[in-house]
Each structure stands twice: as C-alpha cells, then as structure tokens.
Design brief:
single chain, alpha/beta, five-stranded parallel β-sheet, about 25% helix, about 25% strand
C-alpha cells in the first residue's frame, strides 16, 4: 500500500482523484489531498458567474467532502504546505504536521501577478481597501460583498486591470450588476494572448456597445484618492479596482524542495519531475517547455497521471488548448494558438456586426482557430480540429460562412461535446438527466461552454422502452 499525497485541491486534483477512484488506486492505496483553501474543491472558471449572480457559491462544488470520504480519500482542507522533505519523503504543513508520502503530486496551480502600481499596497503590507484580487472563491465573495455594501448601480465605478479572459469575464459580471465599468489593458488590444489585433478591436467595440469603456496600450501606474492614474495621463475615478492581470505558475514549494523548475515545475511525458517519486500537473507544471492555464490540458494530464499511477504505460502527448470566454453577451472561442501557429490563414471579419472568424490550416488540417461574435460553427470546427480532419480546398472557407438557413445539426455519437472533459455526444445520450451527465461524465463542470449542447442532446434523446 502506497501513500499518495496530492498538494492542492483545485480542478486538476479533482480530476486526478476521480481517475484514481475509477482505476481502483484509491481503494488499494492511501490517498490524501491537502487543500490550502477552506472550501471543498470548486470550479474556478465559474467564479464570475457567482459575481454576476447567476450561480450560487455552493453550485461550484465539484466533489463534496462526503464524496471523498465515501471513496476512501482523505481530504484535508485549510492545510497549507510549508515544505517538502524529499530525503524523509514527508510533506511539512505550516502547523508542523508531517505527512508521509511514497508518491507526491504537486497541483499547486498558479498565483496572481501583482502589477507595479504604486498605492496598491499599504504600509502594513495589505491591499488598499478599494483593491480586489480575483483568483479564489474568497476573493469573489469579498468583491461581491463590496458591491453589495455600496448598493451597486451606475454611481459605483469599477476599474478592471487586465484585458484577458478573466478580466473580461469580471468586467461583464460587474456591468451586469449595474456598475459603471472600465477595462485597462497594457497591450495594444484585448485578449492579446489569444487573438490578433483585428479580433481584439472587435471585442473592444462590443464591450463599448455594452457600456464598458476600454483603454488599451495604457498602463495603470498609481492609485490615489482621485482614482487610478494611467501612464497616458488619464485618471479613472474608481470605487473598486479589480486585478486580473494574469498569473504565474506556483513553483515556490518545488524550488525549495530542489526540483527542476524553469517557468513551471519541469515534467516529462509521464508528468514526472526531476525526482521520480514526485509528479506535477496543471497550471504549475511545464511540459515540453510550455505551461498552460486552461482546464482541458490540466484534466488531460490528470487522466494520464491517474493511468500511470494505476500501472499503465501511458504518456502525455502535449496540450491541445481550447479557450472559451464565459461572459454574458460576449462570444469568444480560441482553439490552439492562432497567432503563432504556422499555416495558411483563412479569415472573415465583419466589424459592423461584431464578428471575426479565423482558421489556420496546415496540409488541409485545422491547427488553430479564433471565433469572435458568432460561434454557430464552433462545434463543427472543434470536431475537425480534434480529429485532424483533412479538408478539401474550399471547405475552410465554407466553415467560416454562416448558413442563410441554419439547419439542425445531428451530432454522431463519437463527436466530442465537452472539450474540458473529453465527453462525446453518445456518452451524453446515455444519461437520463443533466445531473447524471455531471456525475458520470463531468461534462458542463469545466468552462460551461457545452451546457447548451448537452441540454439539447438530452432533450432529443430517444425515449427508453418500458419493455
């Protein structure tokens, strides 16, 4: 019997433990999960939905403490890890407790970056009372309480620092709550890590149409009683300042333990670090020189590691990332890296209606894509992307053209519906309810982008015979 210890209780860990349970590892080994936060593992992607008011905090729970106990897994919440003693094979907690391990998994995630803005931090080291990070459930609840405390409404002004996926989600959530919102992005356009300038400008126009001001190519430099000062001289009045300007892999624990670390904790194709007893996955891991901040590759890594710990000879092939913006009235999906992936570019843009569609095709195969405003073809494009379908010369262009009379799409059973969990249409049709889909397949528990498709499949599934 091995002692398998996992540091971190986020979405990657949840998927790993589910895999260990499914493969019988949790039944024959002692599995312990050490979670820094006091909350049961939850879906971080949907935090903005809690802020917006469309989800209750408890709805984000991925697996309850009771589920862990029922499957023989020890879940310790509020257990902050201080060090890893590799010589003694022990994990040391801040309260002095030592936990033995034979196999250690680091799933420490990422930590938010604090932008160099004077006045954010007070003399005692705490954040200015108007400043809020947005990374955890506690961050979300504090911001939600701050909005409620002043009553919300357009007289309350919020500035979101960071124009990435998280920043836009937070900006839209606050705007839906009725606040006057402004977004500050230091890059030349929004979502600069995912899309090009033309798509970024369309997203900015869409935001402005929805009442949110956007400042790109400008950096916040100082917070004063007057507001947030930008390097272009503008001063933005701000009752709330929300920091969403990215994060970096949480590698401090691995560094102190003497493991190989570059940008992230370096792992091989089996998610093994420079110590064969220690593994890493998710946002903190660096595989083949790359780190990812998305759920699909983290869950793929978790499944590979669960199979490896079950004794299978499996390897992680590398991430095929799919990013989906979850924000009311904004539609953005990105497959791969359309700005750097080599290939022929097929592009259709209509800023008047706020749509931009781009495919990168190499040897007839879609290797990357970006869609803004119109996601009617995202399911079909994702299928071709995942299957590496070789397309004919005219097919990429037709994929980007909206049908004049949309026809209902009948998905084959092997079509992937949930990218995060790798769930097919057939697996969804085999379920009787949305609750069973979530429990048995984990579809809709990632980014939530598949929820509409899952409901549609359940609504059209054949009725079961009573005989």
């Amino acid at each position: 019997m091995r002692d398998v210890v996992v540091v971190g209780s986020g979405m990657a860990t949840t998927r790993l433990v589910e895999g260990l349970v499914a493969r019988g590892v949790a039944a024959r080994d002692r599995v312990t999960v050490l979670g820094d936060e006091p909350h049961a593992p939850y879906n971080r992607i949907l935090l903005s939905a809690v802020l917006e008011g469309t989800h209750r905090p408890e709805a984000l729970t991925l697996r309850s403490p009771g589920w862990y106990a029922d499957h023989g897994v020890e879940l310790r919440l509020g257990a902050r890890v201080l060090d890893v003693d590799r010589e003694r094979r022990e994990v040391v907690l801040v309260d002095g407790t030592r936990v033995d391990y034979d196999v250690l998994v680091l799933a420490t995630g990422s930590i938010p970056s604090l932008p160099p803005i004077r006045g954010l931090v007070r003399m005692d080291g705490t954040l200015h009372p108007a400043v809020h990070a947005f990374r955890s459930l506690d961050d979300c609840l504090r911001l939600d309480a701050a909005v409620d405390a002043v009553g919300g409404g357009p007289d309350l002004r919020a500035v979101v620092v960071g124009g990435g996926l998280l920043g836009l989600q937070v900006a839209r959530a606050l705007a839906v709550r009725g606040l006057a919102v402004e977004v500050v992005e230091g890059g030349e356009h929004l979502l600069r890590s995912q899309v090009g300038p033309q798509a970024g400008r369309i997203i900015a126009r869409d935001l402005e149409r929805l009442g949110t001001a956007v400042y790109t190519g400008a950096r916040a430099v100082r917070l004063t009683d007057e507001g947030l000062r930008l390097d272009n001289g503008y001063v933005l009045s701000a009752d709330l300042v929300v920091l969403t300007a990215g994060g970096r892999p949480a590698t401090a624990l691995a560094r102190r333990a003497g493991l190989a670390v570059r940008r992230g904790v370096v792992v091989d194709d089996r998610l093994t670090t420079s110590d064969p007893r220690v593994h890493a996955l998710g946002d903190c891991a660096e595989h083949d020189g790359r780190v990812t901040g998305f759920v699909p590759p983290a869950w793929e890594q978790a499944q590979v590691l669960a199979d490896h710990l079950a004794g299978d000879d499996v390897r992680y092939p590398g991430a095929r990332t799919v990013a989906r913006l979850r924000a009311t009235d904004l539609e953005v999906a990105v497959l791969g890296d359309p700005e750097t992936e080599p290939g022929e570019v097929v592009e259709v843009s209509n800023p008047v209606v706020g749509s931009h569609r781009k495919l990168v095709v190499r040897d007839g195969v879609v290797v990357a894509a970006a869609l803004v405003g119109d996601l009617s073809r995202i399911g079909l494009i994702t299928q071709h992307y995942d299957r590496a379908t070789v397309l004919g010369p005219t097919e990429p262009g037709r994929l980007l053209m909206a049908e004049r009379t949309p026809r209902p799409t009948v998905l084959p059973d092997d079509a992937e519906v949930c990218v995060c969990a790798g769930v097919t249409a057939g697996a969804v049709r085999a379920c009787r309810s949305l609750e069973q889909v979530r429990e048995d397949t984990r579809a809709t528990t990632g980014c939530g982008g598949c929820a509409e498709a899952v409901r549609g499949l359940l609504a059209t599934r054949p009725a079961l015979s009573s005989t």
